[in-house]
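ok so i was messing around last nite and threw this chain in just to see what happens. nothing serious, just curious
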Amino acid sequence: MTDYILALLVIIVAIFVIKKVATCLIKTIVAIIAIAILVYLFSKTGMLNYHF
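result:
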């Protein structure tokens, strides 16, 4: 359950930072970092499995 709370916190912080920052490049970097953190959390909890 704490992973869901942490993922929600990452999304909220990313949205807050994106709204405060005006540069498109920084918005892109923040979005990529937030997505990377979410992918790490979901893969750690087993919600995201790679079966190729």
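not much to say yet. The mean pLDDT is 76.
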